[in-house]
Design goal:
By secondary structure, this protein is mainly alpha-helical. It has one domain (104-411). Helix content is 64%, strand content 5%. Helix 9 packs antiparallel against helix 10. Mean pLDDT is 93; it is low at 411-419.
Amino acid sequence: MSKRAVLWIAFLVVHIGVSVLGWIMPNEPMGDVYRVYEPWSSAYLNGGWFAQVGADGIQTNAYYGYVGLTDAWVYPQLAMLPMLATWLFAWAVSYTPAWAIMVALVDAAAFAMLVGRGRSRGRNTGAWFWLAFIALMGPVALYRLDAVTVPLGIVGCLWLVGRPWWGSVLLAVATWIKVWPAAILAAAVIAVRRRLAVVGGAAIVSAVTLGAVVALGGGAYAFGFIGDQTDRGLQVESPVSTFYLWDLMLGGGSRVFYNPDLLTFEVYGPFVDPVISVMTPLLVLAVVGVAALGAVKAWRGASFVALFPALSLALVTAFIAFNKVGSPQYIVWISVPLVVGLVLDRQRWWRPAVLGLLIAGATQIIYPLTYFDLLVAMPYPVVVITIRNLLLIVLVVWAVVMLARVRTRGHARRPAVTV
C-alpha cells in the first residue's frame, strides 16, 4: 500500500473517530454548533426566525435577526458562510453531523493539496502531524468555526510563494471568518517578496466583503466583532486566568462565573478590572514587537523559507498567550504554522511540533474531559491547564528566539527544504 493511501485511510479514521467522540464526551463539545451556529444560520434562511422543537414536542419560534447585519456579532461577517453551507448536508442528517461532514470535506480538499502525490517527506510529515494534532485536540478541533479556518490557512500558506494572490485571498477569507489568520497574513506581508500581490489579494477580499455588508444594510455593524472582543472579560481558559484558578483552588477570593451573553465562563478576583484593561494593549504590544522583529529580518534580506514559519508561529502564539479570551479551540491555530514549518524544514521543526502535540493533548484533557472540575478549581485540571499554559509560553519563547536567530543576506544558512 502506498504512503498516500495510508495517509488517506488515517484521514478517514481520525475524522470519523473525532466526530463520533463529540457525541460521547462530556460537557457538550459540540455545543457551539447546535446552540449558536444552527439558530444563527437558520434565521438567515427563514426571515430572521429560528424554529425549534423542544423535548416536549412543542415548537417555539425565536427571532435572531441577521447577526452581523442587523446586530453586532462576535465574528466577522464571512463566518456565516460555513454555517450556511452546512445546511447543504443537513437535509440528510441533523445540523450537527452535517457540520462535521462540511468540515471534513474542507479538510479533505486541503489535505489533498498538502499530500499531493505523497512523494514529499516534508509534506507527508506535515500531513501526519496535522492528523495527530486533530486526534489529540479531540472534538473541539472539528466542532468549532476555527476548524474551517485551519485548512484555508494551510493551503493559503503553501500558495504564498508560487501563487501569492490566491494564497492571500484564502488567508483573507479565513480572516473574515475568524480574525486570527490576520496574524499569518501579516507574516506573509512581511516575509513574501511579492508584497503587492499579498496586499492586493487581501484588499480585494476585504473590499468585496465590506461592499456586500454595506449593500445588505449592515454597514453600522461591519466591524462590530472588534468591539465585542475588546470588551470581554478574562475567560477561564486563558493563560492570564491561571492565577485566578490557583487563587480559587487555594481558597482565595477569586471565583468563576458564567457570561450568558457570550456563552463562556470567566474569572473574577483581585485586581481583575485593571488586568482586563491592560490585556488588550499588552497583546497589541506583543504582536507589534514580533512583527517589527520580523520586518527587520526581512529588510536585512532573510529568505521566506527561514523567516515566514518562525514569524507566523511567533505571531499566532503571541495572539493566544496574551489573549484574555483563550477558548480551547484557539489552540488549533498553532497547527497551521507548525504544518508549514514541517513542510519546509522538518529537521528543525520537529521539536516545536512535538510541543504543539503536547499542548493539544493537554487541551483535550481540559476541555471537554475535565471542564466541570476546572470550573470549580479541582487540583487535577488546574495543574493540567497550568502546564498547558506554561507550554504555550515556552512555544512563544521558542518561536521568538528562532525568529531572532534567522540569518540574513549571504550569512543565512540554507535550510533543508523538502517541499
